[in-house]
Amino acid sequence: MLDFGLPELLIIAAIAVFVIGPNDIPKIMYGLGRLFRRFQYVRYAMSQQFDDVLKAGDIEELRKGVNFEAPKTDERGADEPQEEPKP
């Protein structure tokens, strides 16, 4: 969907130089860098809070305690006739 190659990026850079001006491009790039850095920090902080909630609620131990595998059964014992209980 957003597949940019080198020719497309060069065209975008050339248009940016003409529209914005060569003197303002470093300021804009600095601002974009700060914006992306803040976004990464927010993403990191949210993941840390999620991990803290998991640790505080002991959900990690609960998750480890759940067995999602099918119980192991002895099929040979199922084929043998079972004794009926005596009254």
Summarize the structure.
With about 90 residues, this protein is mainly alpha-helical. Helix content is about 70%, strand content about 0%.
Describe this structure in words.
- The chain has 87 residues and is mainly alpha-helical.
- The chain has a domain at 28-64.
- Helices cover 68% and strands 0% of the residues.
- The radius of gyration is 31 Å and the shape is elongated.
- The protein starts with 5 loop residues before the first helix and ends in an 8-residue tail after the last helix.
- The relative contact order is 0.04.
- The model has no long low-confidence stretch (mean pLDDT 79).
List the SSEs and their pairings.
Elements: H1 6-20, H2 25-56, H3 59-65, H4 75-79
Key words describing this protein structure:
87 residues; mainly alpha; 4 helices
